[in-house]
Each structure stands twice: as C-alpha cells, then as structure tokens.
Amino acid sequence: METHLCAACSAINPRQPYHGPERLKSGNGFITRIFYSHSDSLDHITISAEVGQCDMCYLFLQAMRNPDAVDPQWEYSSELFDEFSDPENANTAAFGVSVKDMTYFEEDMVSGDIDNPEGPVLISITFRNRRIDEAESRCIDVAVHWTDPVTVTRIISHDLILVSSLPEKLIQILQMRDITSDNSTGSPFVTGLIKEWMRTCDEEHEICRKRRAASKRRLPTRVISVENNETNPKLICPPANTFEDYVCLSHCWGRSQHFKTETTSLEDRMASIAFSAMPRTFQDVVTITRNIGMKHLWIDSLCIVQDSEEDWNRESAKMGRIYHDASITIFAEGADSDDGGCFVSHNSREKRLCRSPMFDEIISLFTSRAQSPSYIQAQGQWRLPLHQRGWVLQEQILSFRSLNYDLWEASWRCPGFQGCECVPEGFLRVSFTHQDSKMEKVLSDQWAQIVEKFAPRKLTCSKDKLPALGGIAKEFSQYWQTDYLAGLWRHQLREHLAWSVPVRTHSSCVRQTSRPPEFRAPSWSWASIDTNRLRMQSMRGYLS
After folding, report:
1. For the whole prediction, is pTM greater than 0.90?
2. pLDDT in tens, 434-457
3. N or C: fewer beta carbons within 10 Å in the chain?
C-alpha cells in the first residue's frame, strides 16, 4: 500500500504551524488544535489529486466536496443493536489521549489568521478525548479549511481522521492491499480483513470466547453443504444433534421469490443446487462462506420447504435459535432482492488509509504515544441501514457475529467490537452483564425500543407479526421469568399498555394506521394494528 504524496503534502513541517497550538474547552474536558498551511487554493488540491495522483490531496478533495459532513465533537449515542453502555460506569482515566504541553519558539510560529478569506488552504489537527466506544487510535481529527471562490467565505470540512498505533497484524494486511484488484467488497483484501476480524474475535475477545463456549451450535434440520469448491452446493439433512459451525444468510427475497425449496423440488435440492442457477445474492454468500473456511450454510428460502405448512411452522419456530447459534450471519443489506447480490464495486482510493509520515512526528510531539506509522483516511461513521423487513430485526439482534454488506462497504460486528473497511481496527463495545443492578431497567427500555423499531417494518404475511419477534422474546424470557402476552410482558403491563400511535409525526411522514382483517392479537396489544409509527410510552414515574 504505497502512498504517493505531492510536494505540498510532503513539505508540512510539524514544528512550523500556521496557527496554534490552541487549547479549547469541549464538554467536560479540553481539546488541542493546531493548524498547518497546505497550498494556496482549491485548484492546487484538485490538480494534485486528479492529475498528480496525490493520495492525500485526493482525500482532502473528497472531504471538501462534503463540507461540514461530520462534527468532530459529536457525542456517542447507543444504537438500538448495541449492548447498553453507561459512561458513569467506565474507568474514565482509561479513556482519552494524553496531550503534552507544547511550547514553540517564537521564531518558529507563523501567526496566521485561520478565518482570513485570502488565506491558504489549511489542515487542522485536533487532539481530543476518545469516546467510550472508540479505540485510542481514532481520537485525532483532521479538518480542511479553505475559501469558497464564489461566496469568498471560509469553509470547513470534518470528514477526515488521523489514525495511528494500529495493530501490527492489521498494518501488514493494509500494506499488502493492491488498489488495482481491490475494486469491490468481494476482493481478496476484504476477505483477508474478514479473516483477521474472525481471528481477533476468536483469540482476543474474552466475551466472544465465552459466548462461543456457551453456544451449542447445533446444525439446523437442513443446511446447504458448500464444502467442495469444485462441485455445486447441495441441501443435506445432518444427523440429529450434529454440532458444527455454520453460516446464516439474512436477505430480502424480492417480489419474485423464484428460487426456493418446495415439495416438488426438495429431492432435486438434495442432489445438487446448480451454482449458476442461483440468484446473485446466493452465489455471493456461497463464495463468502467458502472463503472464510466454513462448510455449512443456512438460507431460509432453501432450507425450509416453503409450500409445506407443517414444515414451515416447525422450522420457523426455530429461526431465533438458528440465528443465535450460527457462527456468523451474513446480511445482504444493500440488496432489495435475491438478484441484488452482496458485493458492490467501489473506488478503493476513497476508502484506503493514506500513509502520512510527516504526521508521525506531530503525534509524538503532542501525545505520550511513541512515534508510529500514521494514516489519514475518510472519517468512519458506524451505521446500519434501516431495514424494512420485519424478520430482519430478530436476525440482527440474535446473531452472535454479523458480516454486513451494504452499498458502501463490508463491516463486522461481534460482542467484542464492530469494525468496517474504513475502520478496520474496529470500535470497542461496552456492555452490561445480566447480574448488573441496572439490567432490569436496561432490558425494559430495550424491549420498548425493539417494539418501536419493529412495528413499522414490513411482513409478507401479516400473521407473522408476533412470530417474527418470537426468538427475541425467548431470550428476554430467560431474564424475566414471567408470562409473555401478545407482545407485552405481565410484569410491565401497567407501563406498556400505554403504547400509542403519535397524533403528530414529522412533516415528511404521513401517519398510516390500520387493523388487519383477520385476528392477530387482542386489541390492547400493539401487535393488533399495522402502523408506520409506534410509541411505547413509559408510565413508570406515574404508576409507582
């Protein structure tokens, strides 16, 4: 992964800033910011990036095309699918970057005005405390300041980050990256990254090792054998109580739903499933499963006989446990049908880590870290696309490890961390244990959030409203030894019977509420209606 830098990028002198360092109040702490002059105008960066092929100018240019894309001071907010974290319980001394007091000789300082419209393009480096979910390598932000030629005003973009102190194994993988072949999320580089995430999870995450040890990993009634690369996959029925690793697929079928197992095709599926006849998503997931060294794959539309009510009722009741016990669940997030596929093409220059040796000294000057290789890259924002399919929510929550393919990149999620191509070393995760004194409130709030997220989702069969949450309910029942009543829990009835459909919604969201023609749940349950907006109102303060 050789980085090409132009003369302007290479000439940045860590000891000759344009402005700063300045120490600013931020939240409960402080940040240190320093500015460096880069070039005279936007034109220089454009030519350098597109003609001169400077990798760092290319990242600067991409950031400048998205001004104010990211606020570097944004506070961490827990996603629904995160284990709940509590900053009050964290050892705050362990979180943050130690910033040295730096004194420059007056002759080394360039007293420049960063807001001067006639000023040069500036690069600012901000040292800040890291968030509770963040690795220390990620708490140095990079911003580009330049003058808009039309409005003649200064503009800033916060879409970059300076990364350092990456694990040696990860650096080796990054250095081997070939940008000519790394043109999709199915490239050898991405496969190598996934294998490293798996290795780290297996060998270094204590919470993941405990989860794997506790999981039975019993093979489902039917699985697809993909062991032999030279032959077509086929459906098999493993002996009862066979314990082996397997992969699950979470996907959108699409309207056609043409490739599935039915009574008439079951025997043929057991003999062979022609790889060339599979829809693109299935082909991609077979390839992924083989690449990561797994032999068994479970896909609902192929492993459940779709026109057999008896088989569907029996196997669908096990789906929560099937996803829970899988070694990895692959989410085809970017495809709206089985023909969409997992792999997407991308520009590897946009996501690569750009080696920036001139910033190695800046890091060692301003922090207590030893000098180590540093890289500039586009700011990674962890995000899970909003799924519309009802069953997917259960699959997301119950899956032990998730490998996600969206429209931008491949990403990983396990109990220990979550990572992606643009944040390969991953974000840390902090979670409660079930013995925690606050766990009851956490679970109560989490169930309410799950219902609110689930209610607007689409289901092919309206009667699946409650079954699609059945696996999650079974997991909650391990903590709450109480009755589960049509989407509500007996010990929370007073609170959660106060569910409602908001009268007012966002101007772009028209409220849509109806009751299905067939009985699905009692009228006092939220599951009795179809709506695109639901609120699980907490009445704890009023009813205590």
Report:
1. no
2. 444 445 555 667 788 888 888 878
3. C
